[in-house]
């Protein structure tokens, strides 16, 4: 059986043990591929008030501006993300320089990013989903939900300079309308 370089993944089955965790990290952080694949335990910070968050470099802005002096990105660690991080070893005595996703790697960041993207497409097709969605939609979904809470301040977390960019490329109006309808019509006890 042939294996993909450094992933321990069979070419025929397209499954790597860390894929599910990768998909969940992307959905719960809204980060870009390289930002999330390169997250380390040292990227987790706790504020003086006890709020946990991820802080990492905004690699896209750094590439555009050709400087490393860009503001950091912050992702609040909510209950869902904290549960995933605990599952991945947050409460264990981890080396701060270890990667959160697939820490014992013997392949490049690019290989992991490509495997995540291709596997997402593979599983989407295998599930019979014909809708035109890709791995990027996990980021869009996260940003759409964040926008429900943060409104015009969403760009602070996503590092987008204007709300117009968010509205044009990231926010899904169908999700927003479903959420609004659910908020007004779903009643569990009465």
User: What is the CATH-assigned architecture of the largest domain?
Assistant: Alpha-Beta Complex
| Rg value | 18 Å
Question: Distance N terminus to C terminus?
Answer: 57 Å
Largest sheet: 3 strands, antiparallel
Main-sheet strand order equals 1-2-3
Give the helices and strands as they follow along the chain: HHEEHEHHHHHH
**CATH C-level class of the largest domain:** Alpha Beta
The residue-averaged pLDDT reads 79
Which secondary-structure class do the elements indicate? mainly alpha
Low-confidence stretches: 10-14
Give the helix level as a range of percent: 40-55%
Kindly describe this structure.
This protein has nine helices and three strands; from the N terminus they run H-H-E-E-H-E-H-H-H-H-H-H. The chain has 190 residues and is mainly alpha-helical. The protein folds into two domains: 1-130, Topoisomerase I, Chain A, domain 3 (Alpha-Beta Complex), CATH 3.90.15; 135-185. Helix 1 (19-29) runs antiparallel to helix 4 and helix 1 packs parallel to helix 6 (136-150). The longest helix has 18 residues, at 109-126. It is globular and about 45 Å long.
Descriptive keywords:
2 domains, single chain, Topoisomerase I, Chain A, domain 3, mainly alpha
Topology:
Elements: H1 19-29, H2 33-37, E1 44-46, E2 52-56, H3 59-65, E3 73-76, H4 79-88, H5 109-126, H6 136-150, H7 154-158, H8 163-169, H9 173-185
Antiparallel strand pairs: 1-2, 2-3
Helix pairs in contact: 1-4, 1-6
């Amino acid at each position: 059986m042939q294996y993909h370089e450094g992933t321990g993944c069979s070419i025929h089955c397209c499954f790597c043990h860390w894929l599910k965790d990768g998909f969940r990290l992307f959905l719960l952080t809204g980060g870009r591929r390289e930002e999330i694949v390169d997250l380390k335990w040292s990227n987790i910070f706790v504020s003086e008030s006890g709020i946990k968050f991820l802080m990492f470099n905004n690699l896209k802005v750094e590439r555009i501006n050709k400087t490393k002096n860009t503001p950091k990105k912050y992702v609040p660690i909510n209950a869902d993300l904290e549960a995933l991080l605990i599952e991945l070893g947050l409460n264990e005595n981890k080396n701060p320089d270890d990667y959160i996703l697939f820490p014992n790697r013997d392949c490049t960041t690019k290989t992991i990013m490509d495997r995540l993207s291709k596997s997402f497409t593979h599983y989407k097709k295998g599930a019979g989903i014909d809708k035109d969605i890709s791995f990027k939609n996990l980021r869009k979904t996260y940003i759409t939900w964040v926008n429900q809470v943060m409104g015009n301040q969403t760009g602070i977390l996503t590092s987008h300079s204007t709300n117009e960019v968010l509205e044009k490329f990231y926010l899904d109006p169908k999700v927003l309308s479903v959420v609004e309808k659910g908020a007004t019509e779903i009643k569990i006890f009465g």
